[in-house]
Design brief:
By secondary structure, the protein is an alpha+beta fold. It is built from 17 helices and 15 strands. The protein has a 4-stranded antiparallel β-sheet with strand order 8-5-10-9. Helix 3 packs across helix 6 and helix 6 crosses helix 17. The termini are far apart.
Length: 550
């Protein structure tokens, strides 16, 4: 091989070697790059797994800690931390729903932790609900122990109702597009499980069965009911009246003569109304004249505001107060007092419920009086509209099925249109069937959201006036109502599917019997508390997690 050929061959070999080296270098770089990616991915996976494992482990520990404690227990039953969390938040939700319109006035701020808000001196709102939970679970455990003694158990219908409640929870969770586990934790506290909720429903259902037995067990004669009424007249007798209080007005630095003159003037004005009050209308007219004499009455509408301002400016000059026409109307309405309870502990009660030597009540409609309070320097004129009476009207018996709305019950209620549609469908299905009272009761047990009346098929007996919401009461007390009538009515709670059963007893008799039963139940329960010991550990309740409502 010639020199030129040899050189060319060596150069070619050199180029091949360089290419091979470059290729190896590129291969190593690709390998290192790929390894870096793999290592990075492995590290990320490892970190995520570590975080997930840590969160899982932390949740597992938290759940175990909650469920390993026993805040409340009796001989045969116990409440673990998860169940106590359910009852704590159950009480909290019920409280919020019940007082939704006045939460802020009660001093409760739903956006702040309960532990940081004072309920009373030295007591937080958390303490308040903790105490309420201990009291409610104590009653449940005592009643369950009595169930055990009496052989009272949950039957198939009870278990079916509990199963239905759990299905409703699942439906609510589906509606919020969350798992049942997440839904339960949102409404009953962190680490509360489906098993906790079910066991709490079983305890509540069993206790309620025993409560019903104990409450309904006593039997009372007509004589016992009448004696309860006569022995405790403050609970059953009332009167209606109108009144106006006139106070002596004088300057702070007034001397004795000026004070005496002011009192004489107030007394004279009260007596003038008394003498004029020959009828209710005459009393109203005399009171209105009194207000007009002592106030500059101005119109309500904005265009007369200048007149109102002028009148207010004049107050400083002649001590004449200013009232709008609406304020005058409200003042006249405020003279009315209805259902003032029987009492002989004050001067008014001694007059309104005065008796003669034979025990006959002396007052009659239209009687008047001026009662003086010398210490307060007031003179109050009274016009008796309705002298001593008791509730003699006939009560009503009714069954109802409630579908709650979410504006009242955020945990289980339905949107308004869905609630109404469901109530209408249920009534239609009832009317399409046998349409008997028994059939309605069965329908209630399957569908109602009113836990208090579910077991009794939605039955409310001897419903008295003033004990139900206005729409409910208006429907059952409609003079045209007859047994078997049905309807769907709308209230703030939701939609009620109604079934009118018929008339009950006289209202006062129902009130007296209810008082007797409540007193006897309280006495029985106190004996049961002494019989069945319940242990409590108030430190353990600190492990529960109040739900967020803010």
């Amino acid at each position: 091989m010639g020199k030129g050929n040899r050189v060319r061959a060596e150069r070619a070999d050199e180029r091949k070697a360089k290419k091979l080296a470059a290729a190896k270098k590129a291969a190593r770089e690709r390998l290192y790059h790929n390894l870096s990616i793999v290592i990075a991915v492995v590290l990320v996976v490892a970190i995520l797994f570590s975080l997930a494992y840590t969160a899982f482990f932390k949740d597992m520990i938290g759940s175990k800690r909650l469920h390993d404690v026993t805040p409340s227990a009796s001989t045969n039953y116990s409440i673990n931390g998860g169940q106590m969390s359910y009852f704590f938040n159950y009480n909290l939700l019920n409280f919020v729903n019940r007082y939704s319109s006045s939460i802020s006035m009660l001093g409760l701020d739903l956006s702040k932790p309960l532990t940081e808000q004072e309920y009373a001196e030295g007591t937080s709102w958390f303490d308040y609900f903790a105490n309420a939970s201990f009291e409610s679970t104590k009653e449940l455990l005592v009643l369950c122990e009595e169930a055990n003694t009496r052989g009272i158990t949950l039957d198939e219908d009870d278990q079916a109702e509990i199963g239905h409640s759990m299905e409703e929870l699942q439906q609510a969770a589906d509606g919020e597009k969350v798992s049942l586990e997440e839904y339960i934790e949102n409404y009953y506290g962190k680490y509360v499980t489906e098993a906790d909720v079910r066991s709490c429903l079983e305890i509540q259902t069993l206790a309620n069965k025993v409560y019903t037995v104990l409450y309904d067990e006593p039997e009372y004669t007509d004589e016992q009911i009448a004696a309860e009424c006569e022995d405790n007249p403050e609970n059953y007798y009332f009167c209606d009246y109108k009144s106006l209080q006139i106070k002596a007005e004088y300057q702070d630095d007034a001397d004795e003569d000026a004070i005496a003159e002011a009192n004489e003037q107030a007394k004279a004005e009260a007596n003038a109304i008394l003498n004029a009050a020959t009828s209710e209308e005459a009393f109203d007219s005399a009171v209105e004249d009194y207000y007009r004499a002592h106030n500059e009455i101005v119109a309500d509408d904005a265009e007369d505001q200048e007149d109102a301002d002028d009148a207010e400016d004049a107050d400083d000059a002649d001590d004449t107060a200013t009232m709008t026409e609406t304020e005058l109307k409200e003042a006249l309405e405020e003279t009315l007092t209805e259902e003032s309870a029987y009492t002989t502990d004050n001067d008014f009660g001694k007059w309104a419920f005065e008796q003669d030597e034979d025990g006959n009540y002396l007052r009659k409609a239209g009687d008047t009086s001026v009662i003086t309070d010398e210490e307060e320097e007031t003179y109050t004129v009274y016009y008796l509209l309705k002298p001593m009476y008791r509730h003699d009207y006939t009560t009503k018996n009714v069954r109802h099925l409630l579908i709650t709305v979410d504006s009242y019950d955020s945990a289980h209620g339905l949107p308004d249109d869905e609630a109404k549609a469901k109530a209408d469908d249920l009534l239609d299905s009832f009317l399409a069937g046998d349409a008997t009272e028994d059939a309605f009761a069965a329908l209630v047990k399957e569908n109602t959201m009113d836990e208090g009346s579910a077991e009794e098929g939605g039955l409310y007996e001897n419903v008295r006036k003033g004990t139900m919401v206005e729409e409910f009461e208006d429907w059952i007390y409609d003079e045209a109502r007859k047994p078997g009538d049905t309807d769907v009515i709308d209230t703030d709670y939701g939609y009620h599917v109604m079934y009118f059963v018929g008339d009950g007893t006289a209202a006062w008799e129902a009130e007296a019997e209810s008082s007797l039963r409540s007193a006897d139940y309280d006495e029985t329960f106190e004996a049961l508390k002494a019989k069945y010991a319940v242990t409590e550990d108030d430190q353990m309740i600190k492990k529960i997690h109040p739900i967020s409502l803010g």
